[in-house]
Amino acid sequence: MSQLQERTLQYYRQQQYQPGWFDLLSVMINGMLNNAGERESQAFLRQMGDNLASRYPLGAIATVADLEAQINQVLARFNWGFVDLQPADTAIVIDHLALPPGDGVMPDRQWRLALGAVLLGLYARWLRGQGGGDNVSLTCEETGESSLRFRYQA
Predict the structure, then answer these.
(1) Contacts with 85 (C-beta within 8 Å, 6 or more apart), sequence order
(2) CB-based contacts of 127: which residues, under 8 Å, 6+ apart?
(3) Could you read off the pLDDT of 77-108 as tens digits, one per residue?
């Protein structure tokens, strides 16, 4: 990554971090992990993402480009980065880039996994709303310190 790209990324990450709200979220996630365990916490966070998607539904979509544009509109409202969608055979690959940074107290990997769980719920609800089936799997993998990859595949 070039010096300019690094400075640009740092600028956007500073814009995303909202003192107080992100600190509270970090404390809550740490509390869940410590009290309920990782598996239960991940399930709860996915459910919260699903609930969030119901508050911010997507409109009718005709193409993958439309889907990407509508998702990015919502993510921009949240300052949660942006997505790049790519159709691949029987799948849609969702690269989520410029994730909001954590508070520096919670380990970065835990933060990304927590955000990944929320985004799994969010994306799954949106994709079902566009006609996707409940039997279509949506998985998440880490791809970098500020990115995640989701694969929606039957």
Answers:
(1) 64, 65, 67, 68, 71, 92, 93, 94, 95
(2) 92, 136, 138, 152
(3) 988 889 999 998 889 999 999 888 877 778 88
